[in-house]
Each structure stands twice: as structure tokens, then as C-alpha cells.
Amino acid sequence: MGTEQAHDQESTPTAARPTKSRFAGPLGRLSIAGVVLAVAGAAVWYFGELATPDDGPAASEIPALQVDPAPVRPGTDVPVYTDVAEEQPEPQAGGASDDPLAVWAAEAADATGVPSRALWAYANAELAVRAEQPQCRLSWATLAGIGRIESDHGRYGGTRLGADGRPEKPIIGVPLDGSPGVRAIADTDGGALDGDPRYDRAVGPMQFIPTTWATWATDGNGDGRADPHQIDDAAAAAARYLCADGRDMSSAEGWWAGLMSYNRSVEYGQKVFGLADSYARAVDQRRQ
């Protein structure tokens, strides 16, 4: 699909081996493994070097998903921080239902225009990493910003998320065949995830490529399997990836390091920033 599909494959955060979450029940068994690659997360920001993507796919965006970048310099600011209310109980496996998290998601959907099923997944992922890595302070809004760019929250191509968290039609990216603006990544999974036996493709609502999913695959809803096409799993994997290496995603340094590890493009980070900030502000205003 666009620049947001194939992420830099050359380096990954530490803690790359799959791990099991201590949550076997409500938050889902997060047997870690999943999403895009890492670039070195630096404490000092070299704006000239980061001004354009480095080793990224650099393909043109999907027109329907074009998003304007926020006018912010990397490492200088973070989106408005908002989290899922502390009083929310742990969500139950199986996705959106009449639990309090689903009530929150429905209200947030009214405020943001993001589908409630997608918001449930982003919030569920936030709660999971909050419990496992409290220093990370990742907000659901950042995951929502990524999900908007990668697949329009599971709606790209006219599909939509079902109650089970899977798009009605699989969301499969372009072949990573080395064509102009696209990295060349020969098939690594026998086409198991993307249906392509020649080249890897990004898949699912958060657009994982098979090699990164093999490393970071996550069961985010406790159903016993990790599936990049299922939004609870994909969002949980993205959250774990962003929080790698002890990052504090509520700090400017940590947030930008996380986004640069997800996609080595300043413009990508600026787009996620603008979306996350607008989503967070909309929900905060509704709370007032």
C-alpha cells in the first residue's frame, strides 16, 4: 500500500523474542511478537538526517488515506495525552460487547468518528501495556493515529471490521518487489499471511509484514492465537513494539523514538502526531 506499509527491516528493538503475558484472562494472553521494524532510537535528534525517510519504502500514499502532517519538529513535543479511564475493568476476550470498555469505545467513537470496534482494540492494547510496562504510558490515541494511516481503522478498500475484529475482506498491501519507491523483500512465510509466494506484503489493520509479525506476533484478545488480520492482536503487537526498550511514550523523546522505530519517516510521525492529538482532544472535550 503506501509508505506506511513496509517498514524498515534492518533493525529491531531489543526484547525481540516472543514472550507470554502474565494475563491469561481478561486482557488476553499477550504472547508477544509483532509489527514493524526499528531504526535506532536516538536521544539526540538530528533534524537534517531525519528530514526524509531513510531506507523506507517511500511509495506514494493511498489517496483515500492521505493525511496532512502536523507542523511539529521531531523530538520537541508529544500529542495531547489521554488514556482509558483508570476505573475501567479489564476487558474480556472476544472483542466489543456490553462491558465498560465497549461503553467507553462507543462514546469515543461519537467524539472521534473512529469505529468503536477499532477503538476497543486500541484501548485494550493500552490497558495491556499499562499493566505490563507501566513506564511506557502509551495512549490509545497514538495507536488510533497509526491505524488511521495504515488502513483507515480496518476500512481500506471498502471493507469494515466485523464483531470479531477482522476486516470482512483481508487488507493486503502491494508486493514488496523493489519497484520504484518500494523495498524488495522476497517471500519469507510461503504466502501464509499475505497469499503471495514470491514477495512479502504488509497485512491487516496495522499493516504488519510477515518478518516482523514472526518476531512480535501477539494474542491481544486471549483467543489462543496471534493473527495480524485481527485488530486486537495487531494493536496489541503494535503497542508492545512501540514500548520496547523501556520507552516512555508520554515524553517527546520516547514518543518520537517509538514512531521512528515503527516507520523511519518524519512525515509519517508528523501525520500520526496530528491524528493522535486530534483524537485525544476530541475525547477529552467530551469528558468535560
Automatic annotation (TrEMBL):
It holds the Pfam family SLT_2. Keywords: Membrane, Transmembrane, Transmembrane helix. Gene3D superfamilies: 1.10.530.10. One of its GO terms (molecular function) is peptidoglycan lytic transglycosylase activity. The chain crosses the membrane at residues 27-48. Residues 1-10 have a biased composition (Basic and acidic residues). Signal peptide: none annotated. Residues 1-23, 160-179 are annotated as: Disordered. Residues 202-246 form the Transglycosylase SLT domain. GO terms for biological process: peptidoglycan catabolic process. This is Membrane-bound lytic murein transglycosylase B. It comes from Tamaricihabitans halophyticus. The lineage of its organism: Bacteria, Bacillati, Actinomycetota, Actinomycetes, Pseudonocardiales.
